[in-house]
Each structure stands twice: as structure tokens, then as C-alpha cells.
Amino acid sequence: MREKAGVAHRAVSSGRPASPVGDPVGRCAAVARTRDDGWMPIIRGGSGSVRSGWKVAGFLALCGASVMAAAVLIGMFAPPWASRDGQAWPVVALAAVFILASTRLCLRLEGRRAVSFRPQVARLGIGLVVGVGLVGLLAWGLMLAGVLYWQPNRGFSASLMLSGTVYFCCAVLVEEMTFRGYALQRLAERIGARAAVAVLAVAFGGYHLLSLGANPSVKTGGADLLWIAAGPAIGAIVFGVAALRTGGIGLPLGLHLGWNWTQWHFFTFAADDNPVGLWNPLVMPWYTEHPAAFRIGYVAAMALALLIVLLTTRRPGADPLFPASRPAAVIG
């Protein structure tokens, strides 16, 4: 008895709890605490809140589920006229509504609010002008270099213009809300602005690789397949920097939409998923098998876009995408 009492006394005096040997309830509680201590820190941080990485993963999962749910619902209930022009605009329109609701849900759970809409409208307009201008500049340069020329697409119609415009507006909105909204802000707060832009740029390229890798225009693997991911990833860097420098998705949304909509009219080929736009591009035979000129031109245009973003958004700080007590991450 004296020996057991001495052990208990030493345990108390050293600040450690006595061993629960002989106490089944205490032993089970100790095992439960050990298990909790093992996996809960992976999910929750020191403050007890869910870690940013899990929040981003959960939000991206909601976005993926939103697109799939929209596709199923539209496939089941949409009338035939909704896709008669070959544009799946009802799917991306409904997906945009679902992703907006998912963003609002995540913000509400964190007690945050979205930024004011008014200043983002002006940035959206600026981005549209820059995006359209960059594609026009690229087309002009390739034409002067003798890479390609255009003929009017006589099959183009007003209904195709309307459905195509709605499609690109909604599709770009889906991508910007998914990759440059909530997810980008959370990662920037956790791992820093530059790392967050890089991570989501890789994710954006991977997303395009999964969705477009089986496109008939990807004639072979190798460089063609790599460019399917690398091209969007380069653009994602520009859009991510624009989002963090301005504190919202207005500017990247305008840049992205202006680029994609104008590209549809100048650089959509018959083998692509989308119907040909206003102009039918005719590429010189040598460049059909050697597309380096297009890729170099694209990289140069994106570099110019990044320079424009950095020069026109130079200021000491930016409002956060979703205001909170901590300041937003800014790329300087």
C-alpha cells in the first residue's frame, strides 16, 4: 500500500495524472482522448476552427457537385430548344446559380460578407475591353505573319450569337467563382498570395485537361495534351493576380470573358466543341502541323495582360474578396 501511495504521490507532484490501471472508465476515456488528439488537429487548427485547406477542398467539392447536378437536371427537364445551337448554356447557367449559392453558404458559415457589387462592375468593363483587345491584337499579329486568314461564316445566325454569348458568360462565371473567388482567398490567407495563385493555376489546368483532353482537336498526346493544361494555367495566373490585386472577381471575370468570347469568333475551328463563330479561320498548311506560332502568341498576349494588371492595379493594398478581421493577401 505504501508503495502504491508513493507512486500516486510522485505522479501528482510531477504534474502527470495517475495511471488509470484498475479503472476501466478512466482507461477508455484516456484512449478516446488519444484518438481525438491524433486526427482532430489534422482537421482543426489551434483556434478550434476548420483548417483553410479543408474549407477549400469542401468548396471545390461543392462546385463539382453543382456542375454535375446542373447537368443531370437540365438533361432530365430542359426542353429540346435549349440546346439546339450546340451550346450547353442551360447547364452552365444553372451551375453558376448553384456555385453562387455554395459561395454564400460558405461565407455565412464563417460570418463573412461579399464585397460591394458596384466597384466590380467598372472593373468588369475594363477587363472586357482589355480581353477583347488582346485577342484582336493576337489575331492581327498572326495574320501579318502569314499564319492564317479568315472568311465569314455564312452559317452564323443571330440565335447562335445569343446562345453562344449566354454560354460564355455563364461558363466563365462558373470558372471564376470556382477558382478565383472563395477558394483563392482562403488559400491566400493560409499559404500566401503567390502560392495560392500557383496552386489554383495548376488545378485550373488540370480541370481543362480532364474536360478537354478527349477533344478531337487533340490529335495526339504529348505536346498537344500538355498544352491543353498549360495554356489555361498561364491564363489562370493572370486572372488570379487580378483577383487578389483588386479584391474581387470583376477584373478577372472581364478579362476571361472578353478573351473567350472574342476567341470564339476568331479561333474556333470545325473540330472544336463549340460551333464556329463569326469568322472561319483558315490556317496555312505548314502551321497546321506546327502550332508553335499560336502558342508563342498566346504566351505573349498573357504576359502583356499580366503587365497591364500589375501597372493598373498598383496600390498599397486591396479590399479582401470577402471582408473579415484579417487583411487580404495582396500580390505586390
Share in helix: 55-70%
Largest sheet: 2 strands, antiparallel
Using only C-alpha atoms, the radius of gyration works out to 26 Å
Number of helices: 12
Number of strands: 2
Tell me the overall shape: globular
Q: Provide the spatial order of strands within the biggest beta sheet.
A: 1-2
Distance between the termini: 70 Å
Provide the low-confidence segments as ranges: 7-21, 324-332
- Structural class comes to mainly alpha
- In sequence order, what are the helices and strands, one letter per element? HHHHHEHHHHHEHH
Strand content: under 5%
What is this structure's SSE topology?
Blueprint lengths: L1 H12 L10 H20 L8 H26 L11 H22 L6 H28 L3 E5 L5 H22 L2 H10 L1 H20 L10 H24 L3 H18 L11 E5 L1 H5 L2 H21 L20
Antiparallel strand pairs: 1-2
Task: Give an overview in words.
Helix content is 69%, strand content 3%. It is built from 12 helices and 2 strands; from the N terminus they run αααααβαααααβαα. The protein has helices spanning 2-13, 24-43, 52-77, 89-110, 117-144, 158-179, 182-191, 193-212, 223-246, 250-267, 285-289, 292-312, and strands at 148-152, 279-283. The radius of gyration is 26 Å and the shape is globular.
Core attributes:
2 strands, mainly alpha, 69% helix, 12 helices, 332 residues, single chain
Can you summarize this structure?
This protein is mainly α and 332 residues long. 69% of the residues lie in helices and 3% in strands. It has helices at 2-13, 24-43, 52-77, 89-110, 117-144, 158-179, 182-191, 193-212, 223-246, 250-267, 285-289, 292-312; strands spanning 148-152, 279-283.
